[in-house]
Design brief:
Blueprint lengths: L1 H28 L10 H10 L2 H18 L2 H21 L8 H22 L3 H27 L3 H18 L10 H17 L1 H17 L7 H13 L5 H15 L6 H17 L17 H32 L9 H11 L6 H7 L1 H18 L9 H4 L5 H48 L15 E7 L9 E7 L5 E8 L4 H19 L4 H15 L7 E9 L4 E7 L4 E5 L2 E5 L14 E6 L5 E5 L10 H9 L5 H16 L5 E7 L9
Antiparallel strand pairs: 1-10, 2-3, 3-4, 4-5, 5-8, 6-7, 6-9, 9-10
Helix pairs in contact: 1-2, 1-3, 2-3, 2-5, 2-6, 3-4, 4-5, 5-6, 6-7, 7-8, 8-9, 8-10, 8-12, 9-10, 10-11, 10-18, 11-12, 13-18, 13-19, 13-20, 14-18, 15-16, 19-20
Length: about 675
């Protein structure tokens, strides 16, 4: 009887301990917040806890954490989502929807989106709130997936990944706590990355470093950790099997190289050194025990197998380096607007119709100028103008002083907003350039340490390409650029870019777009991913100048007999097979305007068919019947002749009112000889 009572008491204590752990960790995870005030890690913990007493304990911890770490306005949506998650777990527990980890995560993210959507619609800046919600929703989904092996039973790598993520989330919550200017939490994050890299190798080390660094940055870290930890994890993992000392030195060297672009690299180096000291001090049995040096295949075989993939990664790294350089070359100097424009525009509104206008702005211009100049520091410091900011001789003379103050305050608000926007844009541009540079280095390092892989081989069918360009009437150079090439996978790529305007400036922009996109595609980057990356980068590059470029990309797979057209603001393209012509259009905005993704159209292109791409100067999209008739009646098989015929007919009809570019792809019915 006593033995049975002890067993029951032990089980009860274990149960209480389990619930207590769920309670306290939910409360602690609430401290990990995104800049928008969301606590996604705590919500992911609640979703992973499931229904019943476990979910109730996690919810109670979230309530305590919300009271301690969140403001009232932030706590309301957080607790609403938490209650909905627990309710859904109780109502839908055991159903197919919550039977898998992804179903739990998607349900939690959906409930979060439903609640957050209400606040987005009511926000003064819906787009800003939307961006914060997307960040928080992504972290919530990842948290719910990774926490489930910890709370619902798991083993092996999934359990280890969950423990690492939990530790990283808790450390992220206290990352801003510093001692003598250094963060102990960042040192422990470095320790986590070093342990994971040394245990699992370079690929996992880089993945852990990038994931932990990105998580910290999304939660408002003041230090850029993504590139530093990703590169450091890759370096430490590459020393797997060669001793912890070498792994620690590689980690520190890579972290140091990645932080050279930071304004304050010393704190992160000191924190990384502290974490690595703990890494070296840990007992060997805690660091994957005794290691066996891996068996290395013969160098000649390994190098031969890895060469194609190394070349592809190096090309991608080169494309990112060029993208980094292009952002620096095209970005205008950040010159702040002169505050005098506030008074100039206010005077245009108020003083022009005043009876004393001639006295103030002509006969006594020096006194008026000095009065405005004396008031400027007060305006910029306070953010609004008051009558006491102006000298007595001016304030007593101005008969429309209240109206002038209202106009100045309106123009001052617009001036301050413009200045804030320019500074944020410059910061975003610098951050993007840094990330492109670091990613380029990461790909280069990966290519250098690549072991072996088998390249994908494409079909050997050879196509023929014809192209023709003609500048606008009165110009000496054409603003359109065409390019054609074949990738290692056997895909034929045709590019046509049309720069804004005409002349040399348009040619430089379109040539830059074609060169960067060609580098991405030759490196093996998927067309949609390459175009999205290029669109974001060009949006930052041309944000001040407002320039844009249309992009038309045709990717032809001879093996599948299919052509894919990717259009960013481009003119229609045409597919011709015999006397049948198909017109392909798109509605996306040009590159650089930060619009939606490119329009993608896939269509069969059997042997004997033509793909024709034109710029908008060749034919008006609304009046291209003549071009359809010309293509339908064409019976030749030389793409260069067809391109020349289209251009000459366009010159006759359109009179060169814009730059003209034509490119034609022809896939012969039999294997053709490459020229």
């Amino acid at each position: 009887m006593a033995h049975g009572q002890l067993t029951i008491e032990g089980a009860r204590r274990e149960r209480l301990l389990t619930l207590g752990i769920r309670f306290f960790l939910a409360a602690a995870l609430t401290a990990g917040q995104t800049p928008g005030g969301s606590a996604p890690f705590a919500l992911g913990w609640i979703a992973a806890a499931g229904p019943g007493a476990e979910g109730a304990a996690a919810l109670a911890g979230a309530v305590v954490g919300g009271a301690l770490f969140l403001s009232f306005g932030e706590a309301l949506p957080f607790l609403a989502v938490a209650i909905l998650i627990v309710t859904a777990s109780a109502a839908l527990g055991g159903t197919w929807l919550l039977a898998r980890p992804r179903g739990v995560a998607l349900t939690a993210v959906g409930l979060f989106a439903a609640v957050e959507g209400i606040y987005i619609l009511q926000a003064l800046s819906p787009l800003a709130r939307l961006g914060e919600a997307v960040t928080a929703g992504g972290l919530l989904g990842v948290s719910a997936c990774l926490f489930q092996p910890l709370l619902r039973g798991g083993e092996g790598r999934r359990l280890a990944d969950g423990l690492v993520f939990l530790a990283a989330a808790l450390l992220t919550a206290v990352e801003d706590l510093e001692v003598l200017g250094f963060s102990p939490a960042r040192g422990l994050l470095c320790l986590l990355v070093a342990l994971a890299a040394y245990d699992r190798g370079p690929a996992a080390g880089a993945a852990f470093g990038l994931g932990i660094g990105l998580t910290a940055e999304l939660c408002g870290s003041r230090v850029s950790l993504t590139a530093a930890l990703g590169l450091a994890g890759l370096a430490a993992g590459s020393r797997q099997g060669y001793g912890r000392g070498g792994a620690a030195l590689g980690f520190l060297a890579a972290a140091g190289a990645a932080t050279l672009t930071e304004g304050r690299p010393l704190p992160l180096l000191v924190e990384a050194s502290a974490g690595l000291a703990l890494f070296l001090a840990l007992p060997g049995r805690l660091v994957a025990g005794k290691r066996v040096k891996p068996v290395v295949p013969p160098p000649s075989h390994r190098e031969e197998a890895a060469a194609p993939w190394r070349e592809r990664l190096n090309r991608a790294a080169g494309a990112l380096r060029d993208l980094y350089d292009s952002l620096g070359r095209g970005a205008p100097q950040n010159t702040d607007e002169n505050p005098a424009i506030v008074f100039d525009r206010s005077a245009e509104k108020v003083c022009r119709g005043c009876a004393l206008c001639e006295l103030c702005w002509q006969r006594d211009y020096t006194g008026t100028f000095n009065a405005m100049n004396d008031a400027t520091p007060f305006l910029l410091e306070r953010g609004r103008a008051l009558a006491k900011d102006f000298p007595e001789y001016f304030a007593s003379r101005c008969v429309h002083l209240p109206d002038l103050l209202n106009a100045i305050n309106g123009e001052l608000s617009a001036f301050l907003l413009r200045r804030q926007y320019r500074r944020q844009l410059e910061e975003t541009r610098r951050s993007a350039r840094g990330q492109y540079a670091q990613l380029s280095e990461l790909l280069t390092a990966t290519a250098a340490g690549l072991e072996a892989a088998a390249p994908a081989m494409g079909t050997d069918r050879l196509c023929r390409v014809g192209a023709a360009l003609r500048p606008k009437e009165g110009e000496t150079v054409c603003g359109d650029t065409v390019a054609s090439f074949r990738t290692d996978r056997g895909l034929w790529c045709l590019l046509l870019a049309d720069g804004m305007g005409s002349g040399e400036a348009a040619r430089k922009e379109s040539a830059l777009i074609c060169r960067l996109l060609q580098q991405f595609l030759e490196a093996g980057v998927a067309p949609e991913a390459a175009l999205k990356t290029l669109n974001s980068a060009m949006g930052l590059r041309g944000a001040d100048a407002g320039s844009f470029t249309t992009v038309d990309l045709c990717v032809y797979d001879p093996g599948a007999g299919e052509a894919a057209f990717y259009k960013f603001g481009a003119a229609p393209s045409y597919l011709k097979r015999g006397g049948v012509v198909r017109r392909i259009t798109g509605a996306s905005l040009p590159v650089g305007l930060q619009g939606p993704p490119p329009d993608v159209t896939r269509a069969p292109l059997p042997p004997g068919g033509f793909a024709v791409m034109i710029s908008d100067g060749v034919a008006d999209p609304e009046e291209d019947e003549w071009l359809l008739d010309l293509l339908a009646g064409w019976t030749g098989d030389d793409p260069q002749d067809l391109a020349g015929l289209i251009l000459s007919e366009s010159v006759r009809r359109e009179r060169l009112r814009d730059d003209c570019g034509v490119q034609v792809l022809y896939c012969p019915e039999t294997k053709a000889r490459e020229v």
